[in-house]
Design brief:
With 163 residues, this protein is mainly α. It folds into two domains: 31 residues, no CATH class; 100 residues, no CATH class. It has five helices and two strands; from the N terminus they run E-E-H-H-H-H-H. A hairpin with a 2-residue loop joins strand 1 and strand 2. The radius of gyration is 20 Å and the shape is elongated.
């Protein structure tokens, strides 16, 4: 069997099972959303497995609440903000994305509770990993930056006052 990919003919046998699934999930014609539903469920399962790996490898003395907080923080630092649940978005379900989130969460868990500079170093690690993933830098406001209603040139005004 062959398929057309960007105008080129490609033997289906030359694609890995994962790549073939990606092609099939993104092809036009899925009018009832079945492919999107399947992709979201598979993506959630991949992220669930990644979280389970982190939880199982958490340093001794770290409870499930601390692990969940570190995971949530890592997801927010590494993955782009989306108007839908990002952990159901197949675009960000690849091993490199999951590894980046695990690394940032592991960094947060490895630090002593309340250690100074951990959040900043986790953000720096996430920024480095985001660059490697081809993601845009996180949008941050400098400490002396604009407040609600004000906007720096080329930047939108904040929705609420910081802090």
């Amino acid at each position: 069997a062959e398929m057309a990919l960007l105008g080129d003919r490609l033997s289906v046998g030359r694609l890995s099972a994962t790549d073939l699934a990606r092609v099939r999930l993104t092809r036009p014609g899925d009018t009832d959303g079945t492919a999107d539903t399947v992709a979201a469920e598979v993506t959630r399962r991949l992220w669930g497995a990644a979280y389970a790996e982190l939880r199982d490898a958490a340093p001794e003395g770290r409870d499930d609440t601390e692990t969940a907080r570190a995971w949530s923080a890592a997801v927010a630092l590494v993955l782009p903000p989306e108007p839908h649940p990002v952990l159901a978005d197949a675009r960000y379900a690849g091993e490199a994305f999951r590894d980046a989130v695990r690394r940032v969460a592991g960094h947060l868990l490895a630090a002593e509770a309340g250690a100074e500079g951990v959040r900043a170093s986790a953000a720096e690690l996430a920024d480095t990993l985001r660059t490697g993933l081809g993601l845009a830098p996180r949008w941050t406001v400098p400490a002396t930056g604009p407040t609600a209603g004000e906007a720096a040139p080329g930047r939108p005004a904040l929705q609420s006052r910081p802090g």
